[in-house]
Amino acid sequence: MSKIKPLIFIAILVFVSLYFGSAIQSKSVGVSSQVVSFFKDVKDIISFKITQHIHKNRQVRELTAENKELEKRALLLNTFAYELNQILKDTNSLQFSPNAVLIRTTSYVNISDYSKFWVDFKGFKDGEIYGVIYGGNSAGIVVSKDNNPMLVLQNDPLSSFSVSIGFDEIPAVAVGDGVNLIAKFIPQWLSPNVGDEVFTSGLDEIFFAGVPVGVVKEVIDEDLYKSAVIEPYFKENSPAFLYAVTKVR
Predict the structure, then answer these.
(1) What is the per-residue pLDDT for 182?
(2) How distant is the alpha carbon of residue 179 from its chain centre?
């Protein structure tokens, strides 16, 4: 009996060692896997942050260079405006000081109408019509609806403004038909051509003169007038920020 007890004790030790050893090994592997996963996550986060930082630095450099170019252009434009004002002063004409303000679209006026937007427009005056510019090109007009400013994109039938076509500055009125932008009321004796550039004329005091509108892609002969279908430069469906012309001259 005295010999059996040590054997039983040894067997118990072997069993406990095998059982708890595998459990400990399993937990050790689990902890090790968690540690490895943690360090991989940390590595990925650090790599992402470094890449993001490099990308932001590149963006900052590009925007800084772009800003300097814009500052140069603004300086030249200011100089040009000053010289022009001096000429106008010498000829007893009014000074030329156009202005535009930044506006922001907030929502559609009607959910099924994608060419009309409510806009945040500081200084809006009820009853006035404002030309709207996006990316240096005509985009539409702002009008009053329920005493609030409403942006109407230029392909909408509610949008209309005066334009000139080509080198000869053929007069017309740009009107939307729901899909296209059409230059209407062109006198029959004038001859616009496909490929002619279209600019705002400024004669209706909605836009400055010379804002690019688009290019003539088709000329239509009608009974009393001619019309020209315009391929517009502005092609955005839902612009966020635009400029509204508040002073033409």
Answers:
(1) 97
(2) 21
